[in-house]
Amino acid sequence: MNKSMHQMQHSRKPISASDALTQVCITCLNSGMANRIKALRKAAGMTQQDLADHIGVDKTTIWRYETGSQEFFQKPVTDMARILGAPSPEQLLSSFPEPVRLYGNVGAGAEVIPLDEETIWLDGPPGLNDPIAAEVVGRSMLPVYRPRDILFFDRRTRVDEDVIGEDCMVKVSDGRILVKRVLRGFLKGHYRLFSYDTQEESEDLRLEWASPVEWVKRARTRG
User: Fold this and answer.
1) pLDDT, mean of residues 24-29
2) Can you say whether the dihedral through the CA atoms of 163, 165, 170, 175 is positive or negative?
3) What is the pLDDT of residue 23?
4) Cα angle vertex 15, ends 13, 18, to 5°?
5) CA 198 – CA 105 distance, rounded (Å)
6) Which of 36, 90, 92, 95 is nearest to 67 (CA)?
7) Which part of the chain is the HTH cro/C1-type domain (predicted)?
8) Distances 130 to 91, 134, 154 between C-alpha atoms, Å
9) What's the CATH number for 17-93?
10) What CATH number does domain 100-221 carry, 3.30.1220.10, 2.10.109.10, 3.40.50.10140, 3.40.640.10?
């Protein structure tokens, strides 16, 4: 490599999100973009192979996109934004905030009702990778959580020891999804759930997973 070419490579200015889509190739190796693609794919209920089939690449390419080790070309970025339901192609390229799909509403009895027929995207909080989000719509979480508060949960697939004494979104063995404070049960492998509205604990229950609250966006701070 000659000196002039070396100097030219190091003098290139950063490409903005909007300008990047007009380029033949976008090199964007930041973890924020990779995490965003992964989060949107999971929220859409798609596997890496599913997404690969939709945009005409192989599964390994999607894996590279999600690990930040793959160059981003204009057509795949546009196709991914359309297929994954991103507000715009630029949303995939922006550095922050991460888009988070609203999973459901927390209503009576602090039960989570999934939004099966509606897709709502929220600006995610910093520091959380692929969280779950739910909006409080009832008064069963007072006084700790108020109507229109948005709760962001650390997505878990099991019940970890560190959730004891914490407010969590939990899946009970009978299929219900609730937001409650998790307490240790009397029987091994069982847990009790504390309700804010009744100030009472449940009987011993088995949980499939428990995802703790990590961030709360208060209703008064939203428009």
Assistant:
1) 36
2) positive
3) 36
4) 150
5) 20
6) 36
7) 37-92
8) 16, 13, 8
9) 1.10.260.40
10) 2.10.109.10
What average pLDDT score do residues 51-57 get? 90
Token readout for 175 is 């299929």
Structure-token match 């997404």, residue found: 51
Q: Are 17 and 93 within 8 A, CB to CB?
A: yes
d(CA 129, CA 132): 10
Q: How sure is the predictor about 145, in pLDDT bands with cuts at 50, 70 and 90?
A: very high
Q: Tokens 């989570």 sit at which residue? A: 112
Structure tokens given for 46: 């798609």
| 3-class DSSP assignment, residue 13 | coil
Hey, what amino acid is at 123?
Answer: D
Sign, Cα dihedral of 40, 223, 118, 163: positive
As a whole number of angstroms, the distance between CA 188 and CA 210 comes to: 16
Give the pLDDT confidence of 171-205 residue by residue, as tens digits.
999 999 999 999 999 999 999 999 998 999 999 99
